[in-house]
Amino acid sequence: TSTAVTQGDLDQRTGIERKDELGTLARSFDTMTASLAARNRELLEQASKLEGILQSIADGIIVFDTDDHIITANSAAQVILDELKEDTRVLSEKNGVAVGQNGHGSARQNKLDSDPLTASQRLQIGNRVFSALDAPVKMPDGDRIGRVVVLRDITRETEVEQLKEGFISSISHELRTPLTSIKGYNDLLAVSGAQNLTDQQMKFVNVIKGNTDKLIQHVEKLIDIAEIQRGTLSIN
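RE: above sequence
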């Protein structure tokens, strides 16, 4: 019976009914085996629930053990990896995750040992953009037992952001040209017409100048914001 239990057959029982030391040992062994079987069922049920939750998540999730070998990847992650087999090299270089053609592989060690949670990274893989979040998996006592990488397809959101940034940049430059012309002619009017304009008319000219300057400042700020978002703004 002990040999069968050792091999994983937790349904085995000794069946020994004696009142001596051997009977006491047999009853204890059967009780222990029954407890192990019950605990094993609980663990299987818990694992099944966790697997169901993992597979139902739309984001790609890859779980690694302490040796940085892939334990499991949900269906969303497997679809991503299968579709991007030719581009997994990019993912490996930028996020420390190396995945082979069959979806198995390893991940290089990174700074997760000291950081409880890393910031989300954006990865350009082929024509798609992913948000990659890499975090450690730890026991309550703090021991690291693995790590998890979450991949979210944000291609659509990135396209919307690029359209928004392009619109802001385009409209800013389109506004700056006529505003510059208005300012130039207004300044010319203020200088050349100073002797011929009344005080009331000069007041109007100054109001136009002040508001034109404000509009130009706002447009310049929009252009700076667009350059900051594109990462092309340099500061001396």
